[in-house]
């Protein structure tokens, strides 16, 4: 799957992930009203509204980007109905040939990680039947439990040609409380990055990158520069662009000399673009066109930054 991701990034010339984080507050009134008319102001009504919102955004941007990243929390908040909308979103995006990165941040003791890995990346057997319940292409994983918590995920990646993005340095303001602590004189995020190299060593695709990538926030560009060098073969998923303050100019050192190696996520900045002043002229009626324009602008911002850094 890492080969498909890299090929799609090269084809679209857009190292960009559209984050599908559909808070109800971003869903235009006309979509919510239609869903509530049919299903009432219920969890099913909310789930239908976010699904329709996603579908229209995906249709508007699918030719521009290689990948999407549905954030499972935004769906889970609506219970089972929300999870059904998550599953429907994953499968719709795959039908549009988008690479799907499930932002699920799983990781537990080995036996429990194995169940997470089967449910999100692999298969489960029920009697004589075999199911792929969520079937994302990549998922995000929390490394806090160490190697036996990661191995079930890497095993499934090998078997099913899937991939991971492991949290190394997150974009949030408190990420340094643990992640920047010095251990044997080195910040913890560097030790985790060393482990990412080890975990991904025998999962290198023909593109030269490993199926085991890393999450490194856009909000810490100096650390991004260091981590790029520590993990030369890992793709870096970079959240924190846009709504959290990251800009193209901050991100040039997250990329390798080959112009590859990083893929930048923006969620609110794209899906709720119509609420921003810059895109207000589209109005709520044409929210998906505002999202399309926001993708084009983000692509130009990152491309411009990479070209002027050469
Ligand atoms: O370090 C991290 C890891 C994950 N995220 C997730 O990415 C998106 C960011 O959303 P924006 O609206 O573009 O800020 C969201 O799903 C986070 O859970 C992150 O931000 N930082």
From TrEMBL:
Gene3D superfamilies, per database record: Aldolase class I
GO molecular function, one term: orotidine-5'-phosphate decarboxylase activity
Sorted UniProt keywords: Decarboxylase, Lyase, Pyrimidine biosynthesis
EC category name: lyase
Active site per database record: 105
Orotidine 5'-phosphate decarboxylase domain mapped to chain residues: 15-282
Catalytic activity: orotidine 5'-phosphate + H(+) = UMP + CO2
UniProt keyword Lyase present: yes
Pathway: Pyrimidine metabolism; UMP biosynthesis via de novo pathway; UMP from orotate: step 2/2
PANTHER family: OROTIDINE 5'-PHOSPHATE DECARBOXYLASE
Assigned protein family: Belongs to the OMP decarboxylase family. Type 2 subfamily.
Name of the featured protein: Orotidine 5'-phosphate decarboxylase
Species for this entry: Diplocloster modestus
Gene: pyrF
């Amino acid at each position: 799957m890492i080969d498909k991701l890299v090929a799609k990034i090269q084809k679209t010339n857009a190292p960009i992930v559209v984050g599908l984080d559909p808070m109800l507050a971003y869903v235009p009134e006309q979509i919510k009203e239609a869903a509530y008319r049919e299903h009432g102001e219920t969890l099913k009504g909310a789930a239908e509204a976010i699904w329709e919102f996603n579908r229209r955004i995906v249709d508007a941007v699918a030719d521009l980007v290689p990948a999407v990243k549905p954030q499972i929390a935004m769906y889970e908040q609506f219970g089972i109905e929300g999870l059904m909308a998550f599953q429907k979103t994953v499968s719709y995006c795959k039908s549009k040939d988008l690479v799907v990165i499930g932002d699920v941040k799983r990781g537990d003791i080995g036996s429990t990680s194995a169940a997470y890995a089967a449910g999100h990346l692999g298969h489960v057997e029920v009697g004589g039947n075999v199911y792929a319940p969520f079937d994302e292409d990549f998922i995000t994983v929390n490394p806090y439990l160490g190697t036996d918590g990661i191995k079930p995920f890497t095993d499934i990646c090998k078997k099913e040609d899937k991939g991971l993005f492991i949290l190394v340095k997150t974009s949030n303001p408190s990420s340094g409380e643990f992640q920047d602590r010095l251990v044997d004189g080195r910040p913890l995020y560097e030790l985790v990055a060393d482990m990412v190299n080890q975990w991904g060593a025998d999962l290198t695709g023909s593109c030269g990158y490993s199926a085991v990538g890393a999450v490194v926030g856009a909000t810490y560009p100096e650390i991004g520069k260091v981590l790029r060098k520590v993990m030369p073969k890992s793709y870096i998923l970079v959240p924190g662009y846009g709504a959290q303050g990251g800009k193209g100019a901050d991100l040039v050192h997250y990329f390798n000399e080959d112009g590859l190696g990083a893929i930048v996520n923006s969620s609110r900045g794209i899906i709720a673009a119509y609420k921003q002043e810059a895109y207000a002229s589209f109005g709520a009626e044409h929210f998906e066109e505002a999202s399309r324009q926001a993708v084009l602008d983000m692509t130009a911002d990152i491309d411009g930054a990479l070209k002027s850094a050469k």
